Amino acid sequence: MKLALLYAFLALIATATNIGAQDLVVRHYDGTDAVLISVMTGTGVGLVVKYVLDKRYIFRFRARDTVHDSLTFALYTLMGLLTTVIFWGFEFGFDRLFESKEMRYLGGVIGLALGYLTKYQLDKRFVFRVGATA
């Protein structure tokens, strides 16, 4: 239960950085594809933040060296592709249905929550498993 609460708290931090990065982009750029660029930026920022938090506080992972850490991050990112489809599906779906920034962000938050539930299982099984080498 303690791990689940910690994971939820760290997912909340990553979600806030993702949505915050998106909001910064759309506040400063309103050109062509602003929403797509903001979602991609938020996804990238959220990915790095979530990796650092998960690696340290959830899985207590210590890479042997920079190469091992880079390979682990690449595998972490690969596992994130499925969850990104979930997240983007909700965010872009809410954007299309409701046509408002607030509802798009709500869709993003819902998509991230569902994606993170899935991502934990993938990361536990394939990325940070005990004795695993990337």
Describe this structure in words.
The longest helix has 33 residues. It contains 4 helices and no strands. The chain is globular and about 45 Å long. 84% of the residues lie in helices and 0% in strands. The mean pLDDT is 94. α1 crosses α4, α2 packs across α3 and α3 packs antiparallel against α4. The protein has one domain. By secondary structure, it is an all-alpha fold.
Output the number of helix runs. Answer: 4
Q: Spell out the helices and strands N to C.
A: HHHH
The number of domains: 1
The proportion of residues forming helix, as a percent range, comes to over 70%
Q: What do the pLDDT scores average to?
A: 94
Helix-strand category? mainly alpha
Task: Specify Rg, calculated over alpha carbons.
Answer: 15 Å
The largest sheet is: none
Kindly state the number of beta strands. Answer: 0
What global shape is seen?
globular
Q: Spans with pLDDT under 50 lasting ≥5 residues?
A: none
Q: Note the beta-strand portion.
A: under 5%
Distance separating the two termini: 29 Å
